[in-house]
Amino acid sequence: MTQLDSMACWAVAASCALHTFFGMMLVKSESVMYVGFMDMLHANREDASWSPTLSVTMSQLAGLGAACEGVVPYTVTARHFVRYRGVAMGILFTSTALSGFVFPLVAEALRQAFEFPTVLFILGALQLSMLLCCIVVDRVPPGGGEACGDAESSIADSGSSEVAAVPPPVQRGQANSFLTASLAQTCVRTYAESLSLPKSFPGFQQPPDESYSLLSEEESRWSRLARGLRSLVSLDLSHLATSRAVSLFTFSVFVLVAVDFGADNGFAGYQAVAMVTACAVGDLVARIGTGLLLDFDLLKGDTLMLWCFAIQAASAVVLALVKQYWLLVAGYFFVGMSAGSAIMSSTIMAADLCDQETLPLSLGAIHFFSGVVCFARPPIIGYARDTIGSYDLLFAAFAIAYAAVTLTWAVRVCWHRCRSRRRDKILELN
């Protein structure tokens, strides 16, 4: 066991990142799989899109395969970091973006070299590499790590006649961290219980039982579950889950139809796959920079989400109206950049909204909701391409959805700023 934010914790982050890299292989290659299933099954686009859709939704709804991919690596990484949580989780999201950069090209090369069933076998064998990434996964105890154990040892060694100085707390730039609260809770209780002060000590007062209720570790599982379920219905978390579902759904549709969309506009083969690569590059850029922006407080989470959805709306308009190749590539780049930043920001913001015990349930519920929404992809894609005959109206509808979500985040940003100004005025008057 080790302390939070230590070098050993970075090894955990690297292991989780490698696990995520291989776990997202099929999801990131679904545009190639989409075309491969159409050729192998001689199916229309609605029927062919069910297989990639199931690989996405079942990985977020079931407890098998890549189901843990959307929750466990991020929860494990969040437990090991406080000060650098955004950067550490950014490493995981960066590996996700790298997976989207590498595996579409690998899948396309395999599809051109082998029969499609053989391609599926090869990709499945590559996914077994995830097992090698499960070695380094836990280096801090659930109660807060050795940071509290060191404090306890120093206090116990000092004896009853003198009390050791309490080390100054480590400050994190981003507030409302559930790990900071958990660490403080455990250290305070350990410090209080280790003091061997007599009851006749001047000024000593036995604290009431209510003061220990917040520090109690005997909360029943049903109470914890009820508290976690109550956190799911909060307005902030519901808004965050809805925004993430919209961004993930539309982003997955853009990636899924990229090769077919390129073929419709006269760009086939690797030219069409290059649009997926551009999307992955934008995703990579966003996931490297988003953690830095949030950790160093260069942008608030609400403001970042506002900009992400505004950029997604503009990119969807470009893809719907413009048919020049390099503009399409640029549009896919900005779609990947804005969607990747929005998805990553939503996970970090959810970690700050929830405490340590309710975070897995909250993240699972957010991913569950996103997975359920993805079941709408096949009929929507089939209607847009097989019935209407073009993806342009679908992309225009996405632009309208982005604009609506952008409006909600604009209202939220304005409301938070007004509340902050009101609080500052009250403090000035006092």
TrEMBL record:
Cited SUPFAM superfamilies: MFS general substrate transporter
Give the GO molecular function terms.
monocarboxylic acid transmembrane transporter activity
For this UniProt record, give its keywords in alphabetical order, as a comma-separated list.
Membrane, Transmembrane, Transmembrane helix
Q: Which residues cross the membrane?
A: 86-107, 119-137, 245-263, 269-294, 306-326, 332-354, 393-415
Read off the PANTHER family from this record. Answer: MAJOR FACILITATOR SUPERFAMILY (MFS) PROFILE DOMAIN-CONTAINING PROTEIN (PTHR11360:SF303), MONOCARBOXYLATE TRANSPORTER (PTHR11360)
The protein, known as: Monocarboxylate transporter
